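Fold this complex.
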Amino acid sequence: MRDRGVLKWSLVGPTLLLLVAFNVFPLLWNVVLSFTSAELVGEGSRFAGGANYGRVFADPRFAGALRRTALFVLLAVSIELVIGFSLALALRRDFKGKTAVLTTLLVPMMLSPAVMGLVWSLVLNGNYGILNQLLGLAGLGQPQWLTDRDLKFFSIVLVDVWMWTPFMMLIALAGLSSIPASIHEAAEIDRASRWTVFTRITLPLCAPLLGLAVLLRATDALKQFDLVMAVSGPNDPSTQTLSTLLYQVVFRDGKVGLGSAYACTVLVVVVALATVFTRYVDRLRAREAVR
Amino acid sequence: MKLLRTAVILVGFLSAALPLLWMGLSSIKHRDATISQHPKVIPALLASNTDASPLFVPTTEAYRGLGQIHAGAQHSFWHHLGNSAIIGVLSTIASVLLGTCCAYGFSRFVVPGAKDWLFFILSTRFMPPLAVVVPVLLMYRQLDLQGTHAGLVLLYTVFNLSLSVWLMKGFLDEIPRAYEEAALVDGWSRSQAFLRVVLPEARTGMAVTAVFCLISAWNEYGFAMTLNSSGAVTVPPYFAGLQGNIEGMPWPQIAAGALLFVLPIVVFTVAVRRHLLRGMTFGTIKQ
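Structure:
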């Protein structure tokens, strides 16, 4: 029996140790740093009490970034959900070339946001971007996607929607295909209207999986960094999210202590969301086990 | 209804494909044609790059120019692609090996607190890189790992463990225990049974897991740009660094590089098409 104990911990142990060393330990260190005046360059670091936290909550940049990140999560995730689900509904039936179409639709979510963000900044360029040239040919206006202060933020949402709608579609398709055909047939016999079938059968039966997709996307969108950096850079106040604000504070201003206080504040939100997610997965799995 | 369905699919398909097509077209243009005021959409051998026609002269100049060193960078695209490949491949191998062992432990043995450990492993995936990067940076400074291949390999290995453990646990759970038990009855040891019976059965799962680990390491930007701005720079931060270039953006070279950079990922996406759902949801949805 003791041999089994050694074997099992030698299988599981290295992974757990690495995760503690690179996740738990930095987190705790972050908390310690957030009470100091540490800077990126130079050794001098003193205990600063709660001063950093006072500055975080007094900083208008933080309030702005928090609001913008929340808006970003809300907008991007809901648009992706609606378009993704519509695409999945449209793709439910089989047709010629479906595999090829489906695969092409799925490609954007696998690509590097930093690199595709740069490609998109070529597409969206106000002077020589293809999008505005097409809009011009159609006789429409010339929005300055990348320089207009009011528009920039929405351009980043647009690119995020391009990248992540496929993800929603993929999960929605799984939800749709899990609905037994017999239920639809029964509804047909009962002469239920299309709308009734959609709201009473399709939507409720897809909801658990769509919930999972929304949670996964929301935690991801909350971290949004790559696209903001590629499309607009870290310092623009009109597009600054929590991650890019953190970058600015630590790597441009060199304020490690203050940055850690920001990070700890953000982490409270992340941990809350991650907890909701893991509970959700747990419940979903428990239900599947019952089935 | 049928018309609406076709329209939705068509618009979706074009929106997904056109930006990628544009990247491809831009990579075979001269720089003038990429910043022309008029849309240049059709490659034609006899054309002018400057007039208002939609024709442009195709060229392989951008691909040949990938060896150039642009303002704002110290090395050429090929150098950074090499860094991406080394870091991606090594970290993938390490993640898959560690993850497979860990998943096997959780799959076949009674580990105290197994559920809590597994959810702890899953939750590490939600950590925003920017929130842990400062302590990691301070740690790497002490260990001289900043700006090295080894530093990022280590970090990406750990970063991908959550994915690797959860995916492999799903795949290993599907392999019947009877296979190993038969081997144990035949007098094989546990580790022999693991190496010679379980691993060969888990081949597909390991390959799929490897693809997802490789893609996430390949695309990673947050850690790469903050920890490795001085050495072992991978492709995403290299491209990002070209922004604000005083000589103007070298668009054809950027498009050519981006195309070569995403091409392997497109190939892998097609290869693991059937497992995409599983990979993207950490194995929580199986199909």
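Chain B is about 65% helix and 0% strand.
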